[in-house]
User: Which sequence fits this backbone?
């Protein structure tokens, strides 16, 4: 279960393991009605892995019928289903499995439909159902009804002889590897834990113990709250889906070890040791890829580490927040802009043995990056050994520098303190948080989408003890004397940037140094290793501006979007939609985001992104990736869900490209041809023409292609 910690300390506890323990898990069994039904079991396929196919189903909750009938209720349902669509679409770009062969058909719980069985072992129908439960109404998962069409049948057996079929096998679900049942309701858990947005569980496993069916329950009161953006709901849904797909304390012991590789399923066995406790009693997840990923993150490669799990009783289904703050699988949620689909979480899914993982889809986790083997320990977090933690209760900056924050703790941090975002108006990247026009601004703060929080004590007025004429004699300021302020920043290259204060010019900001700002007294501290990283985790973190040489390739890709008629988007909504399109494009490419820079959407719904392979980016050349994308976009348009609307790329107005190298090539070719023409003209003696000859090189011409694809399946069905 995911807890809501929105910009302030909350005291709720996570209930995922408690919720999962309340579910009766079922595994597939051979149908006793049809001896030849083995082929329709959800057995792993022998084909190569392909993206995980999740089919989602929603049925209105009768208990919430009055709520569903209202305008707010319908909008809440629409928001939840849009979040499910986008989350499942994103997971397709991350996880792959050997596909289920034939229709996916779920089992029924015999303890539910059968009241009594034949108990004489000498009878032919020993242990088969002899008496049906008259109150049986079908199967459910976390209160969400499972359609009979998705289930095997059941029968009543006489003491001897053939059965009387009560319900035949359903047709099952084609082209599905996991069935997700969506419920929106006012449940007792939602009332008992007001901070809970949603919770989820898996209900059925296949023969290798991989979850093949589960449910997610959204607490209805949160779906109409203005506190949550569409991206917030998507990240919450991703978190819950990851629980349902196998990131769960009860499933760790069922993870598979496949020494011959992912595709050689016959050699897989249950992992011998997945968790252990260290000498301090901390519960650790110790599988190989997870341990290697954490060691790499902390900058101690070669050391065998286990990843600490949050202490939640005998089982735990979340990362320890002290060590992996900001990971999608910690127990707290601070908003989509502060949450990352991190490489350590993806390493865990690889270690499960059930999934092949696209590691390039991971997002860089800044918390604790390169901080060393002792980072995150209760014994070291308060001794100033790492600037990720703080002491006291002063004001500063959240570690991502998106927000101002105060130095505080919460139950998950166990006494360690960090700068947590303030309750209101702390977001530097929100223009509306700025001072009204005409108001005094003595600290020169600027609130803007490209503003970040910096520790500073800047003032347009000199301190009382220093006269304005001697401002250059201001002594060096200790960091403890600084406080969080919002100023514009602009990346110049990796880990290099400039800052601007209200009324000042752009000033280079040297990471790890204190700088002065023209026109202001005091100092500003430039954080190191936090801003202008190569891997842009979210649209809020500025993409680095890269200095191009004549050998670099830069492409511009523009996609026209078709959406609902009359659908108008404000600036903020266009930014969110641009991020959604970019994520779908990255998933389609199968590479990292380090190829894509400066996404934007115009008012007439034209999405544009620059393609450049940044330093350290792993994968094919940008030329190969660009050409591959062109082909795939011709064959199948992108389909993007944003809020309550869906958008599709239109290839008839799709492509506007520019390529620095190709432009230079065309320039050289044009120059050569024109020189040859001049020589020929001179030979013929046409002096007048020669004097008038000029060289003109025009801009590259947009290329237009006709679409050949059709809109894909949404993955959401109403039943």
Assistant:
């Amino acid at each position: 279960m995911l807890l809501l910690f929105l910009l302030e300390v909350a005291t709720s506890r996570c209930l995922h393991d408690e919720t999962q323990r309340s579910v009766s898990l079922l595994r597939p069994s051979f149908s006793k009605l049809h001896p030849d039904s083995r082929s329709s079991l959800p057995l792993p396929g022998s084909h190569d892995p392909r993206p995980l196919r999740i089919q989602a189903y929603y049925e209105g909750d009768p208990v919430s019928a009055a709520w569903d009938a209202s305008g707010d209720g319908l909008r809440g349902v629409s928001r939840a289903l849009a979040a499910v669509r986008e989350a499942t679409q994103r997971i397709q770009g991350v996880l792959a499995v050997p596909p289920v062969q034939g229709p996916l058909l779920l089992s029924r719980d015999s303890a539910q439909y059968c009241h009594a069985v034949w108990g004489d072992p000498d009878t032919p129908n020993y242990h088969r159902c002899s008496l049906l439960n008259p109150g049986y109404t079908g199967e459910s998962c976390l209160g969400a009804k499972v359609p009979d069409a998705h289930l095997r049948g059941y029968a009543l057996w006489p003491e001897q002889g053939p059965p009387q079929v009560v319900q035949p096998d359903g047709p099952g679900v084609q082209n599905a590897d996991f069935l997700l049942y969506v419920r929106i309701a006012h449940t007792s858990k939602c009332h008992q834990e007001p901070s809970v947005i949603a919770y989820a569980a898996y209900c059925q496993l296949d023969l290798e113990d991989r979850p093949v069916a589960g449910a997610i329950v959204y607490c209805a009161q949160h779906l109409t709250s203005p506190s949550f953006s569409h991206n917030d709901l998507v990240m919450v849904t991703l978190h819950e889906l990851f629980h349902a797909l196998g990131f769960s304390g009860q499933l760790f012991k069922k993870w598979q070890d496949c020494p011959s590789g992912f595709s050689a399923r016959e050699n897989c066995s249950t992992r011998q040791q997945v968790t252990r406790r260290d000498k301090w009693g901390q519960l650790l997840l110790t599988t190989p890829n997870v341990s290697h990923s954490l060691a790499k993150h902390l900058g101690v490669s070669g050391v065998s580490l286990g990843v600490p799990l949050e202490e939640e009783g005998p089982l735990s289904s979340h990362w320890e927040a002290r060590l992996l703050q900001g990971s999608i699988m910690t127990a707290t949620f601070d908003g989509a802009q502060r949450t990352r689909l991190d490489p350590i979480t993806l390493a865990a899914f690889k270690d499960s043995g059930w999934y092949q993982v696209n590691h390039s889809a991971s997002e860089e986790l800044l918390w604790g990056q390169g901080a060393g083997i002792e980072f995150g320990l209760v014994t070291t977090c308060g001794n100033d050994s790492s600037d990720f933690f703080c002491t006291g209760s002063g004001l500063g900056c959240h570690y991502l520098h998106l927000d101002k924050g105060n130095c505080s703790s919460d139950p998950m941090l166990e006494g360690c303190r960090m700068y947590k975002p303030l309750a209101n108006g702390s977001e530097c990247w929100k223009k509306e948080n700025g001072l009204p026009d005409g108001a005094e601004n003595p600290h020169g703060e600027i609130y803007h989408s490209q503003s970040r929080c910096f520790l500073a004590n800047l003032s347009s007025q000199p301190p009382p003890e220093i006269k304005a004429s001697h401002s250059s004699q201001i002594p060096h300021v200790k960091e403890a004397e600084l406080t969080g302020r919002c100023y514009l920043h602009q990346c110049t290259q990796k880990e290099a940037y400039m800052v601007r204060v209200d009324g000042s010019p752009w000033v280079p900001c040297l990471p790890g140094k204190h700088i002065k700002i023209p026109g202001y007294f005091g100092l500003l501290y430039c954080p190191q290793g936090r801003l202008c990283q190569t891997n842009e985790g979210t649209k809020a973190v500025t993409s680095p501006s890269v200095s191009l040489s004549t050998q670099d390739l830069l492409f511009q890709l523009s996609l026209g979007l078709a959406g609902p008629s009359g659908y108008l988007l404000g600036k903020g909504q266009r930014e969110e939609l641009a991020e959604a399109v970019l994520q779908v494009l990255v998933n389609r490419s199968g590479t990292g985001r380090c190829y894509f820079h400066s996404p934007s959407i115009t008012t007439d719904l034209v999405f544009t992104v620059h393609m450049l392979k940044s330093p350290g980016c792993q994968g094919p050349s940008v030329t190969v990736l660009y050409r591959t994308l062109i082909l795939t976009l011709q064959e199948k348009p992108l389909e993007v869900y944003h809020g309550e609307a869906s958008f599709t790329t239109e290839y008839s107005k799709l492509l506007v490209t520019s390529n620095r190298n190709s432009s230079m090539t065309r320039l050289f070719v044009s120059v050569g041809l024109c020189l040859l023409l001049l020589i020929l003209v001179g030979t013929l003696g046409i002096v007048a023409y020669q004097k008038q000859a000029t060289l003109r090189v025009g801009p590259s011409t947009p290329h237009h292609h006709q679409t050949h694809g059709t809109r894909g399946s949404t993955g959401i069905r109403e039943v």
